[in-house]
Amino acid sequence: MTKLKKCSWGGATYSLGFKRAFTLAEVLITLAIIGVVAAMTVPTLITNYTSKQLEAQRKKVKYTLTNGFRLLMANQGASDLKSTTIASCDNDKDCLSAELRKTINIIQDVDDDSSLLSEKYTFTNGELDVWSNDMAYIFATADGTFYGIKESEDPTSGEFVVYVDLNGTKSPNQGGVDLCQFTITNSAIANDQCTLLKEKPVVELADLIDCPGELVEGYCSSCPEGYDTGRTYSTSNSKCYKICGYDSGYEENKIINNGYCSVNAT
């Protein structure tokens, strides 16, 4: 609102305008409203931004692994990974390091008890220090991502399971979010299985026995009752694995990788 006020000076009359300003109370109320709106929207924006970052990093990791293992095959003129020298590493850290450094930009080998690694990761069914459990080789790349090659029951198969912390030392350190699993097939294809790590993986291998019958395409064709072939467990060896859930202590069909069952959370 503008108010006019007349005044005289030197025989002349002037009209002066005065504009009404906001009161302190009005300013405080406006700031409070802005604060409430910000408090409601900013966390969502940050969450969405972080989610997009992790999604992009998952794609980058998949490319890094696929390209790295395919280059190993190409450099040795091999048609599959089990025909390359990495298949003879037999879970040896130094051997895996020497092979993967040929095709992946590894800046550092990391010990499983290194302070660089997060000690605990949260899952829907508890917490776990994943790096100290059956890791054959852990390394870091230039973008701060940590990779862990899991020990394999059949290293000559040319198949690998890799745990990846997408954002290194940053939070939230949560399975299925920034801690993901990738499986490398014998043909050097990296499969993104991040959602499998929403539940805490176990560190105990399911019971296995030798195949009592014939092998078909490398798998046992006649496993006894309560056992299944390695095909179910994403491994190529010729053993028969006890079915998860057949005995108490395991959740039925909760296969994580390489013959590992998911511990029953109940």
Write the layout of secondary structure elements.
Elements: E1 2-9, E2 12-19, H1 24-76, H2 93-100, E3 106-109, E4 121-123, E5 126-128, E6 135-141, E7 146-150, E8 160-165, E9 179-184, E10 190-192, E11 208-210, E12 215-216, E13 219-220, E14 227-229, E15 239-242, E16 250-255, E17 261-263
Antiparallel strand pairs: 1-2, 3-6, 4-5, 6-7, 7-8, 8-9, 9-10, 11-15, 12-13, 14-15, 16-17
Would you kindly provide a brief summary of this structure?
The protein is α+β, with helices and mostly antiparallel strands. The protein contains 2 helices and 17 strands.
Give a written overview of the molecule:
- This protein has 266 residues and is of the alpha+beta class.
- Helix content is 23%, strand content 29%.
- The protein is built from two helices and 17 strands.
- It has helices at residues 24-76, 93-100; strands spanning 2-9, 12-19, 106-109, 121-123, 126-128, 135-141, 146-150, 160-165, 179-184, 190-192, 208-210, 215-216, 219-220, 227-229, 239-242, 250-255, 261-263.
- The protein has a six-stranded antiparallel beta sheet, with helices on one face. A three-stranded antiparallel beta sheet has the order 11-15-14, with no helix packed on it.
- A hairpin with a 4-residue loop joins β6 (135-141) and β7 (146-150).
- The radius of gyration is 30 Å and the shape is elongated.
- Residues 246-260 and 262-266 have low confidence and may be disordered.
